Amino acid sequence: MWIVQKDLYNAHLQVCFWECNSHLDFFNTQIKVAVETLKKYLHFNVTYHSTCNYDEIVAKVQTNKCDVVSIMIATPKRTKLFENLIPISEAKLGILIKAVPQRSHGSLSVFTPLDSSTWVLLFVCSILYALLLTSYEQKYTTAQTETRSNNCFKRSEKLLDIIAYNFSCLIYKPVSYTPQHSPARMLVSWWWVFVMVIVSIYTGKIVSFRSVIPATEYPFTTLSEAVNSEMIPIVVHTWATEEFLQNGTPHSNLGKLWKKMSEANAISYSVKEALERTATGKYMFIANVPYLKHYTNFMADGNCRLMLAPIEFLPSYLTLIINKNSKYIRGLNYGINRLRESGLLSLWLDHNLPLEMETCVEPRKSLVTATPLMLKELRHIFTMLGLGLLASVLVMVAEQVLKRHSHVKMQLIKMFTNNTHTG
Prior knowledge:
The protein has 423 residues and is an alpha/beta fold. The protein has helices at residues 25-42, 54-62, 76-81, 116-140, 143-146, 155-169, 182-201, 204-211, 223-228, 240-246, 253-263, 271-278, 289-295, 329-342, 344-350, 355-361, 379-422, and strands spanning 12-18, 45-51, 68-73, 83-84, 89-98, 212-214, 232-236, 267-268, 283-288, 306-322, 366-368.
């Protein structure tokens, strides 16, 4: 149930549109739908006008030649000149850049998480460790142990058994094998550390993290990166973006963008010029996101030559403006609030994009592709394995030295004992 507003009843409103290009036709069409709905329920008449000159709009509002102006972003300067009606929708600043091609899909297989050189080195290390373990076992095996049926292996049988053990470790189902001597135990210990690291890498989380990547490689993904990029920011003169950047402090990102843009003289006086310069790839067009969504298909040929960078900042709102002394403020705010509460404004502005625009602004989703871990990224793991091999060799050498020293000592003691008994 709508309440008739006394000040609007049978009134004749002059509604002006700030129209400088066809890309705002969609917004203006939806605002006309809203105004016509208010006209129906609040019982007033309306005449529409359009102009491309901002100064002309200011003059018409101040002289009451325009009762309402659609559609603008609220800024401090505009708030001093006009009265802002209830916000129609939220608006954040965004950045429009030249569209970059999407990555192509790659095949993902069980071998993909590791590159071919890593697999080859993994196989070589397994064989090398097996050979060294076999050597240790043969060196320390005595004639007595070789006669035991359960522990006696020929050299070839022993090698195959240890190779099976090494590879079975990689699937966490090792065959039964217990090294009997310190160098072999040292080697097996380091092999198990290596296995745990490799198996941990070869898990679903790591694979998905490496294989599921954004379909688009953006030139920047944060405002700080945009400031430091080679692209030059560009804005349209008299738009809200120009005021926002100009008012930014010198050390802020907004201030840095303004300085960069001023030095390059990148303030445009038409949307067409800004879009054409953006399409070259050397510029980034900064404006509010609802407008930028419509500029992605600025050639209106179905080819999305421009795209939105994944950055939104400095939230504000879209509104209708009116003379500060207008008697229609209360009635129009009441009507706009009713449309907001009903959800109609959101439906008209956000969910009725033209088909070609919906295609261009559709988020570029992630894709699954083959991105294996390279050997250079895993070199520290294989270095650790090499250190384990070196440590086992040092243990073996130390045991041999101690054994030889003990043998010499026993020989000396025996000789000394024999000499004593002889004497």
